[in-house]
Amino acid sequence: MEIIIVESLEEAGEVEAKRLARIIDENPETVLGLATGSSPLPLYQAMQRYVAAGLNMRKVSGFALDEYIGIAASDERSYTATIEREVTGPLGLNPELVHVPEGDAADPQEAAERYEAAIKSAGGVDVQILGIGSDGHLGFNEPGSSLASRTRIKTLSQLTREDNARFFATLDEVPQHCITQGLGTIMDARQLLLFAQGATKAEAIAAALEGPVSSRCPASVIQLHPSVTVYVDYAAAAGLELADFYKYIHRNKPDQSS
After folding, report:
1. What is the DSSP string of 101-161?
2. Which of 66, 67, 102, 126 is flagged as catalytic?
3. Is residue 76 annotated as part of the catalytic site, yes or no?
4. pLDDT higher than threshold 60 for residue 64
5. Which pTM was predicted?
6. At residue 168, does pLDDT exceed 70?
7. Is 137 a catalytic residue?
8. Of 67, 84, 104, 135, which is the active-site residue?
9. Whose CA is closest to 220, among 170, 123, 145?
10. Can you tell me the distance from the alpha carbon of 58 to that of 53, in angstroms, rounded to the nearest whole number?
11. Catalytic site residue 177?
12. Residue 30 contacts by C-beta under 8 Å, 6 or more apart in sequence?
């Protein structure tokens, strides 16, 4: 697990956009795991410049992490609409290759099972983009989630609903349930790329990166993945006891270009 502390996630977005563009150029059918929220936005925005310069992403597949239950896909507050607005449209992806759980399905559990099967059918996720909740959730896997869980229905915690209330007129309008990729599903991705910013994420980041691997902090499961890159700004890194060591490691990375 490589932990990189940056002044801003815009800096991180530039670095990872260059790497991701190279991956897509080498494999035009790359499968991306797509996260919403403010933390991954600098990456998506930096990727737009590569697309404008000629990077073709029409064969790239995308799988969103989660979706609210009970909100129509056409609702601007849905993650289906958010992915279209922030990723599919700006990056020129083929909408038929971009998938989001069917939160408005008549049978959400069946929809969750279909989604899990669709990820497997696509050959799995190559690069999974992630954020982290202030309570340590990954996707919508709230504290207490099984570290081996698969795509399923979850009940959102009160803290998560309060954090997301800014997108709704009132807290009461925030859905209580969702379909989310499970922690086991996320861990199947070949590479994980996590972004976090702001003081409100500091406690969760410290628990996820330096605490014990535990369902108490679902994001801590990434410690068990063989290929993880984590970008945190100074505020989100405030609780890391080994912050100076991570900076030292990053400054003295071995040259692997030869």
Report:
1. --TT-SSHHHHHHHHHHHHHHTT--SEEEE---TT--BTTB-TT--TT--SEEEEPPHHHH
2. 66
3. no
4. yes
5. 0.95
6. yes
7. yes
8. 135
9. 145
10. 14
11. no
12. 23, 24, 60, 61, 126, 127
